[in-house]
Amino acid sequence: SNRVLLVQCAGEENWVDSRTIYIGHKEPPPGTEAFIQQRFPDNRIVSSKYTFWNFIPKNLFEQFRRVANFYFLIIFLVQLIIDTPTSPITSGLPLFFVITVTAIKQGYEDWLRHKADNAVNRCPVHVVQHGKIVRKQSRKLRVGDVVLVKEDESFPCDLVLLSTSRDDGTCYVTTASLDGESSHKTYYAVQDTKAYNTEKEVDAIHATIECEQPQPDLYKFVGRINVYMGNESVARPLGSENLLLRGATLKNTSYIYAVAIYSGMETKMALNYQSKSQKRSAVEKSMNAYLLVYLCILISKAIINTALKYVWQADPNRDEPWYNHRTETERQRHVVIRTSLFSHYFLAFMVLFNYIIPVSMYVTVEMQKFLGSYFIMWDDEMMDEELGERAVVNTSDLNEELGQVEYVFTDKTGTLTENNMEFIECCVDGHVYVPQVICNGQVTDTTKEGWEREELFFRALCLCHTVQVKEEETVDGIKHGIHQGKSTSFYISSSPDEVALVEGMKRLGFTYLRLKDGQMEILNREDEIEKFELLEVLTFDSVRRRMSVIVKANTGELYLFCKGADSSIFPRVVSGKVDQIRARVEQNAVEGLRTLCVAYRHLSPEQYEEVCHLLSDAKLALQDRDRRLAEAYDLIEKDLILLGATAVEDRLQEKAADTIESLHKAGMKVWVLTGDKMETAAATCYASKLFRRSTQILELTTKRTEEQSLHDVLFDLSRTVLRHMCLSSFSGDCTDYGLIIDGATLSAVMRPNQDDLNSGNYKEIFLEICRNCSAVLCCRMAPLQKAQIVKLIKASKEHPITLAVGDGANDVSMILEAHVGIMGKEGRQAVRNSDYAVPKFKHLKKMLLVHGHYYYIRISELVQYFFYKNVCFIFPQFLYQFFCGFSQQPLYDTAYLTLYNISFTSLPILLYSLIEQHINMDILKKDPTLYRDISKNSLLRWPIFIYWTILGVYDAIVMFFGAYFLFDNTTFTSNGQMFGNWTFGTLVFTVLVFTVTFKLALDTHYWTWINHFVIWGSLIFFVVFSLLWGGIIWPFLNYQRMYYVFMQMLSSGPAWLSIILLITASLLPDVLKKVIWRSLWPTTTEHTKC
Question: Which residues bind Mg(2+) (predicted)?
Fold first, then answer.
């Protein structure tokens, strides 16, 4: 059959902007149209963020947008400009270190992106020029070039198909890297050019293409081609079935010729790259909030000190010693100068106290996240032996979010299931056939009529499909069907279900052989080849949910065979054993099997003529083509006789049910978002324990909204849920609710009717219903709707942390909105766009319940500890001002100020934040409820933050006043020498370093030799450094105030005693608080340890 394919140019008159492409860059014949050569971008793909020239300014700009970095830059500049009590190096060095480390990390990541871009842009492509094939780099391809693509090659840009190696002008393509579907799709060459099969012939094509400007919809394309033959021109419409997209791969076709129409960043694939928005974790938001609090504390300290300095200086005896009286004129001038120095004093105090803001916290957090992410990648339990794949971390910034997940959105096919269809059974007139049991299709119904019906059913399934047969030994490099040294054929199709059905028929004795010259050949049970002429294919679409073929048997009889979803076949059936088959279909659907019904109809030659007339009219229509085709199909597919039904299984992934159960126990709400039909998806949800038998199902589907308005349905459901909430709060028994919603109803909820006055709060009611359901199933979802759902939940008033799991490119927009991708069979697009990728759904359990839990515990301790140790560090400096006349005199030496955060106290907390395990890994896996202990950012709440701050202030007061009162004894050393202010500062600093390090040691639950080495090693380093710093006269220093100070202090017995007493006094309240809290109000985790 010679089928003419025309596509409706939808909205042609409304085109705002279109482009004209001259095939092979040839001018159109004179008098046809003006030749205006448009400029199009080249074929380069750019995914990198920086170039060699803009890296430094752009990166610095981005880094100084961080509040802390900008603040430290200002402090550093203030120290350079005015005479401050501390050296500019004390804040300049840590800032330089932080900026450099971050820049190196970001530069390396961008270099990797550049490398990947170059590999793609330098790929060789074959272009037809002057009748010859020329090789060029992909980036040099231009719009209008005619390209030759061979089997298993990817398309270098978006192309319109001109001709193929097949006589019928078709080619087969897999779009796994675009939309996640690994099945083979059929595309069609332009009718008038499909006969041109050599370079010379293709080069002779004289044509122009008019089409819309690039837009991201993968399934929509509107255009027309004008082919010039002599003085005549023929216009043909172009549609999405003529457009080959960049990234797709040619299959089962030797070669094709096509013309480039969109290139580089204008291809549909590039337009679909949703730019990755910078995701910020809840911990980072808490850090910034705490930082603002500490900034306020810092400013208030500086203001108080500046004010008190003026009060102090108001007393002439203090400001003017008895041995140096000023004259009256000098006094007047001094008052003026002092008033003008207010900002100078204020800034000097700001600089003195600025160490309360921990700059090194940011670099420690960056290192903790970067190094910590390797624990996921190194985890052998999260490796898939079969694929040899490990977990991948694309973004280390969100590790701790894995411990805070409240909603999990998962795709179904390929994520929860294996995407591997297997034919289970078929039911013909109420008789069930199972391939393994009834070998070679042993007949169970002995009547002649029953036998004929059974054979007709098997023939229907062998003919009603779009499967292609591949005779070669390999596909995608994997050997298939090699049996006893000879290659056998195997099937490929755009739908895995179709392949499963045709293979099922093969096991029942009817083998589909091939489609050749319009004849479909099948091998029956008697090993005879039967031929049927394929006259028409009424293709499958998601609205009709069925497909049909019209075939002509050798006897001359005409048949229409139709297969589709039960809901779309049963209403069109006029006879057959409907009740028995319906019962079987419902039973199979409940068991989680994908069901299809098969029916047929005899056509008389007159009826066939009428069908042909209807179809050709609809296909040639330029306006409303889809609607007219749908009407034609509707008229043809009626008065059917039901033959039977089939059941195909898409098996659940290993341990998928166990994982979902664990996530539920951990307090997470699991939503399944799928494009599948409701019955199948619901069955999978029961199998995977998303819904239990006791779960009460609420339906928000098109079927229900047809019976009553959306407004009424929503209010009904919300009443049901809220009434139950009130009852359960009295009675204590809790019913589980599960909600099922479909794509069409979701659209109505998201974009309500403008006329409906009550529609404004639909979203709110919908969210309220969802909040009270333990599980939600969204079926018949478009890719963008998946992202809308995630966005809706994220934007709700609680702002929950969401995680999306999917394996195909159709899940990319949802994954970009939330977090995790799974390595599936369907391309790598999801993996590339995700923050984390795991080989199988079951690995999600360990990733969240163990790794996520640990990451959150570690980083929350890191953040709180950093603020605590800086309060301990700088509060004594504040108290010291009351004893030195508010003269901005530093308590600690410059070396101590600089190195406190960089080296004395940084390594122990970094190591803690990498390897701490407050509870055993196996316990976390066995008891998912422990995850609830850390939900909703519970360890970084304000009460805990205030406790750490008060503890820091208490420790600082103990250290400062403890040392101060001990210093009251003037004969502090054995030889009667008195100690100076630097010895006092060093004593406070020594107690400080030991106290904060011991505090961390008390918080550590998981001790290894590395902990011991780092904790005690950093204390030894402090002592050794102090001995060296004070034991040598350093020639590069213009002061020697620390010379011999540390040794002199350690030579005093009371100093040793005071150090030990002060450390004990500082740590005691925290130890007591822990003991009391644990015995009176233990957490679930602490219960488990007991």
Answer: 411, 413, 807, 811
In this structure, what DSSP letter does residue 195 have?
T
CA distance 530 to 519: 10
Active-site annotation, residues: 411
Q: Is 449 annotated as a binding residue?
A: no
Give the span between the Cα atoms of 533 and 555, in whole angstroms.
11
- Distances in Å between the Cα of 147 and the Cα atoms of 185, 190, 193, 259, 1083 are 20, 15, 14, 6, 67
Q: Is 498 annotated as belonging to a binding site?
A: yes
Q: For residue 1054, what are the β-bridge partners?
A: none
Q: Left (φ > 0), alpha (ψ -120 to 50) or beta: where does 8 sit? A: beta
Kindly state the tokens that stand for 275. 């730019």
Query: 903, 844, 528: which is closest to 655 by C-alpha?
Result: 844
Q: What is the pLDDT of residues 74-84, one digit of tens each?
A: 888 888 887 77
Rounded to the nearest 10 degrees, how much is the dihedral formed by the CA atoms of 30, 36, 41, 42? 30
The residues facing 229 across adjacent strands are 232
Is 409 a known ligand-binding residue?
Answer: no
Query: Burial level of 473, CB count in 10 A (0-12/13-18/19+)?
Result: middle
**pLDDT at residue 161 is higher than 70:** yes
- Average predicted confidence (pLDDT) for the chain: 82
Report the alpha-carbon distance of residue 682 to residue 674 in Å, rounded.
10
Q: Is 412 annotated as a binding residue?
A: yes
Nearest to 901 by CA among 357, 301, 285: 357
Q: What was the pLDDT predicted at 1061?
A: 92
Residue among 675, 748, 666 at smallest CA distance from 926: 666
Asked whether residue 716 is marked as a ligand-binding residue, the answer is no
**The two structure tokens encoding residue 12:** 């042609």
Q: Name residue, tokens 């407004």.
A: 711
Contacts of 710 (CB under 8 A, 6+ apart): 745, 748, 749, 752, 762
Q: Quick one: which of 941, 915, 798, 943 has its CA closest to 860?
A: 941
